[in-house]
TrEMBL record:
Protein name: Xre family transcriptional regulator
Family annotation (Pfam families): HTH_26 (PF13443)
InterPro entries xref list: Cro/C1-type_HTH, Lambda_DNA-bd_dom_sf
Species of provenance: Azospira oryzae
Signal sequence range: none
Domain HTH cro/C1-type residues, every copy: 13-62
Length: 75
């Protein structure tokens, strides 16, 4: 199972730089970079809320599920 964060896509759509978003939501650029690259194990709802508020989007615009090869459907 893989959850993909499409933050780069949303930043491009909003014509915004990572630095601007990081400053707006009170996050360091380094932590935002780790989030964008998928090198984190989780994200706080408060952080997700701040990102969505500033980018005027829904969590579903940022998060995507991609099944790993070989994963079987649950059921």
């Amino acid at each position: 199972m893989a959850i993909i964060l499409n933050l780069d896509v949303m930043l491009a759509r909003r014509k915004m730089r990572s630095r601007e978003l990081a400053e707006a939501i009170g996050m360091t650029e380094q932590n935002l970079s780790l989030l964008k690259s998928g090198k984190v194990k989780g994200v706080r709802f408060s952080t997700l809320e701040a990102i969505c508020r500033h980018l005027a989007c829904q969590p579903g615009d940022l998060l995507e599920y991609r099944a790993d090869e070989g994963d079987e459907a649950l059921g």
